[in-house]
Each structure stands twice: as structure tokens, then as C-alpha cells.
Amino acid sequence: MTKIKFDSLPLSEETLKALTEMGFEEASPIQSLAIPVVLQGKDVIGQAQTGTGKTAAFGIPAIELCDPAIKSPQTIVLCPTRELAVQVSNELKKIAKFKKGISILPIYGGESFDRQVTALKRGVQIVVGTPGRVIDHLTRKTLSLQTVKQVILDEADEMLNMGFVDDLERILSSIPKERQTILFSATMAEPIMKLTKKYQNNPELVKVVGKELTVDSIEQLYFDISENQKVLLLKHLVEIHQVKLALVFCNTKRAVDELVEEMQKHGLKAEGLHGDLSQNQRNHVMSKFRNYTLNLLVATDVAARGIDVNGVDAVFNYDVPLDNEFYVHRIGRTGRAGNTGKAFTFVSNGKDFLRLKDIQNYCKVKIARGPLPTGEEILKLKKQNLFDQISTVLNQGVPDFYASVAEEFNGTGISNEMLSAALVRIALGTVEELKDDRRRDRERRGERSDRGFRGDRDRDRGPRSDRFDRTSKGDRFERGSRRDRFERDRSNGEKMVRLFINLGKKDRISPGDIVGAFASNSSIQGKSIGNIDIYDSYSFIEIPEAKVDVVMSSMDNNKIKGKTVNLELAGKRR
Questions:
Q1: How remote is the C-alpha of 437 from its chain's centroid?
Q2: Looking at the whole model, is its pTM more than 0.85?
Q3: What is the CB neighbour count within 10 angstroms for residue 508?
Q4: d(CA 271, CA 273)
Q5: Is residue 390 packed enough to be buried (19+ CB in 10 Å), middle (13-18) or exposed (0-12)?
Q6: Is the dihedral of CA 210, 214, 215, 218 positive or negative?
Q7: Rounded to 5 degrees, what are φ and ψ at 46?
Q8: What is the DSSP string of 424-462?
Q9: Residue by residue, what is the 3-state secondary structure of 520-565?
């Protein structure tokens, strides 16, 4: 849609002055659509995601419609999280900077209740709060909503997902029916529609969808990487792109904690943010992130709601989001205010690829596959960074103390050349190169890696026949790639037995899937498993002869990736 300038909207000089000071000239699509309608006093349903400017879309008209002469709440904004309540409140304060007499107060849990009561008694026109804390004030009669003429539900879908439906019902029933009700949501699911039917009067729908969901300023790539290499890839991408500030998203709280621990082991400055943290802990983590003491913040989608930090260089989808809209919410936190940003998504299995294809269809964007960094690229980068550090130190001057320490080392028989080489070795560390076998293997099989799976090609050919027939001489016994064969060291001299498995490439299994299933369902250790050969519709796996009975009893008719396993001895024991 055509962008419009703020000065073409019916806004006061004070508001226009504040927007100019904030660096805003043109209204975003959702602002262009919503502001005129809200100013008319109509009920509105706004569908928009993070990063589209929705706060100003409802905040500008809310401030314009406030009467500073009335010292009681005229507008209440409800938000799902404390962080979002603070973010919205701060944004509204900036917009109302030159509007004399308008007071905006955020109320949320984790902050002094008495302090909020004192502020309310002084008189406020706009209250921004979380449902739980608003209910607390209503219960204690420290907040009255009888003068409210406008109620705004920000991220209504998330509030319903978090179980606030009863709180919302109670709050809305405490507000006079003669009011304007504005609802913003990323989705329009059935619970949202029920809420609008019950509490809105002929609402007008304004939404931003399709190509307007993502912006050109964000470079979007996905990386095809095995699960156990994702941390290493994250580390290398941070180094190569010189990421100073980034958000890393996981789908669960447990995954956040586990990833933070692994990242810290790799020397990355990372901390987690999820719902189990206390408010003080959350404030402490966010303070470190905003002050650049911490450069990687690992979070769940819910915990990240309301995070508004300038200068986020990149967003990492460590886990592919479970919902298409989550993807838009995530990447909308980089590439803001005219800056460029990067969004990297890690995919490691068939389900990830399917979700990635859905995301591309939903956002109407093609996400290209990113090349895995090579050991040569990583080493080159480390050398350049070290050279820059040395140059900076030399330009600043090296105190005599350090020269005397070097002389002490020389006195022990270590030459300057040997000392320099050893220090370079320590500074550069080891270069752990990522394996790209999964991608090469998929390409060898003719899969379309840019789509993530064969899909269309297979449908064009019709159903695939099972080419394995143990009584037929026509079976394809082509040796797989090294990855397919998964050769293991058997130097301990154990006698090995080869087992036949009825699952193969068409079932999208990998050697790691087989090893993981066998190790977790029987007493066999992964390291004792021998060669694994994967063919189109079946596979072979070598196990120690002593483990045959226990493996056969525990794995036969068990499942790998949801497919039932049939095991048989393949040939003679060796």
C-alpha cells in the first residue's frame, strides 16, 4: 500500500513535533490504516505483528483523544507481559512528550504496589498494565475504570494463550459499556473472534498481511545443520558476522537453559530469559543485554514479548518456530529504524523443512540456504581479528612490564619466534569445522534443498515402489556415501553381527536416528555400534554379537521417527 506522511493525518502539532523528534515521517501500513479509524471513535480489530509499528497505531490516537483536564484514567492498555507493558508505556510517553498534562503509568507485577497506588492517586490519563496487576488494583479498589472511554488489548492472542481470558472478562466488565474497544492481535483464531463479538460494537478490521509482514532490510537465511552441530554453527556465525547483539530463540524453557549452558562452554556471552525467572532476574538479564554486557539473549517466544532493544544485529531461530507468526515476531526485532538486520534459521530434520516451507508460503518470501562456514574462512577471520587487536595494542603503546615478562620467557630458552607462535596458537584456538555431509547426501539423492524436501518431484512420479525384495536379484545394492555408511571404529576386536532394518532413506532416517534409538531403547552404547549402511528402503547396522538378543527383543516392533522397526539377522555372523 502507498505510504502516507504523518503530517497528512489529522494530528495535533504537539504530536507531530514528538514524532519528528523520534525520527518518524512516514506512517507504517498498519498506522496508515488504523489511526484514522481509531480517531473516529470506532471499535477496531487490528491484525499486525511485532515490528510493524502497532504501538503507535493505537498509541497516537489514544493520546490525541485524551483530555488532560480529567485527572482519572481515560484509556487503559492491557498487555500480556511486564516487558511489553513497560515498552508500550515508554513509547506512549515519547509520543506525548509535548502534550502538557497527560500522564501515563505502567502497572505490572514485580514492582512496588504502593508506588503504583501513589502514582494513581496523583492522577493519570492512560494506564498500561498486565491483567493480573490490574485485577489486583481493582480488588483493592485502588484503581477505578469508571471514567475509561477507551480500552486497548495489545497482543490479545498471547493474553488468551497465557490463560488471561477470565481476567480480561472481569476487567472489560468493570469498564462502562459506552466505550471504544480496540483489539490488536497477530492471529484471528476462534477465541479472539468470540471476544470481539462479546465486547466490540461493529468493529472495523484493519490488517497488514502478505508481503508487508517482512521487510527488505532483513537478510533471511536458513542453514541445514545436524542437531549436534548447531551450537558450533551459532558460534561461527557470531564470529563471521561480528554480531554484537543478538536474540536466540528456542521453543521451550528447557531448551533455553540447555542452550545457554552449551553456549557458555563455547565461550559465548549468553544468558536465558523465560517464564520461570523472577522479575528481578529478568530485569537483571535485560539490563545486561541493553548495556551490551551480554551480547546473546536466549529466549522463548512468550518471554521475548515486549523486548524492545535498539541495535539488535541478528536473530537466530535455533529452533524453527512452531507457528508461522512466531517467525515474523522473532525476525521483526532486528532491522528496525532504518537499520539492516539478519535472521538465521537452523533446520535439522524433515519436520523443520516442512515448517520452513510453510513459513515461506505464509510470509511470501524465499529464504535462501546459507553456506556453512569453512575451516579456512573461520581461520582467516580469527587471524584478521587477532591482527587488528595486536595493531590496536601497538598503537596505544605496550608498557615496559610486558616486555620484561617476554624477556623472562627468553631467559628460559624460549626464542621470540617460538614465543610468538605459541601465543598465536593460544589466541586463535582450535578451528572446529562443521560437517556438511547431510546437505551433500541429500543433493546426491536428488532432493531439492531449496525446498527442503523432494515433495513435488515425488508426487509427479506417483507412488514409489519398495525396491527391496529379499527374493529378487534386482535389488539395488549401491554403496551409500560415507555419511550413509556411517563407518565406526571397531578396533576393540569384538565380533560383530549385521542386522537388517526395514527403514531407509525414503523414511528420512539418518545414522544418528538409528544410533539414538538403539542406545535409548536397549542397553547397547552408541560407541559400540559398528558400520551403518542406509539404502532407499532398508538399512544395515552392525552391533556386537553379545548384544544381539537384547537388541532384537527391545528394538523389534519399536519405532524410529514414528515408523515401526522390523529387525532380522542379515547373513552369517562374522
A1: 26
A2: no
A3: 17
A4: 7
A5: middle
A6: negative
A7: -110, 125
A8: HHHHH----PPP-HHHHHHHHTT--TTTTS-THHHHHH-
A9: HHCCCCHHHCCCEEECCCCEEEEEEHHHHHHHHHHHCCCEECCEEC
Per DSSP (E only), the strands in 172-331 are 180-185, 204-207, 218-224, 246-249, 270-273, 296-299, 314-317
For 457, list phi and psi in degrees, rounded to 5. -65, -45
CB atoms within 10 A of CB 349: 16
3-class DSSP state for residue 210?
A: helix
**Residues 108-124: pLDDT tens digits?**
987 889 999 999 999 99
User: Contact at 8 Å (CB) between 170 and 138?
Assistant: yes
- Closest of 196, 189, 185 to residue 30, by C-alpha: 185
Of 70, 80, 9, nearest to 40 by C-alpha is 9
CA nearest to 321, candidates 246, 229, 247, 219: 247
DSSP strand pairing (567-569 vs 218-224)? unpaired
Distance CA 379, CA 384 (A): 9
Eight-state DSSP code of residue 467: -
Per DSSP, the three-state class of 172 is: helix
Contact at 8 Å (CB) between 81 and 306? yes
Among 571, 562, 569, residue whose Cα is nearest residue 513 = 562
Residue whose cell numbers read 557470531? 238
Let me know how long the chain is. Answer: 574
Q: What is the pLDDT of residue 162?
A: 74
Average pLDDT over residues 528-545: 84
Determine contact, residues 514/558, Cβ cutoff 8 Å: no
Please tell me which residue, 202 or 505, carries the higher pLDDT value: 202
Residue 316 CA, chain-centre distance (Å), reads 6
* C-alpha pair distances (Å), 572 with each of 138, 389, 500: 78, 62, 12
What residues does 298 pair with on adjacent strands?
A: 248, 272
Write the single-letter amino acid at 248.
V
Q: Whole-angstrom Cα distance, residue 24 to residue 337?
A: 9
Q: What is the pLDDT of residues 60-78, one digit of tens each?
A: 999 999 999 999 999 999 9
Average pLDDT, the chain: 81
- Tell me the sheet residues that pair with 497: 543
How far is it between the farthest Cα atoms of the chain? 93
Residues whose CB is less than 8 angstroms from the CB of residue 466 and which lie 6 or more positions away in sequence, other chains included: 537
pLDDT one-digit tens code per residue, 194-242: 888 888 999 999 887 544 445 567 889 999 998 888 998 999 899 888 8
Smallest CA-to-CA distance from 51 within 344, 343, 358 is with 343
What single-letter DSSP state applies at residue 52? Answer: S
DSSP 242: T
Neighbouring residues of 17: CB distance < 8 A, sequence distance ≥ 6: 98
The vertex-50 CA angle with 46 and 54, nearest 5°, equals 40
DSSP string covering 5-35: EGGGSS--HHHHHHHHHTT--EEPHHHHHHH
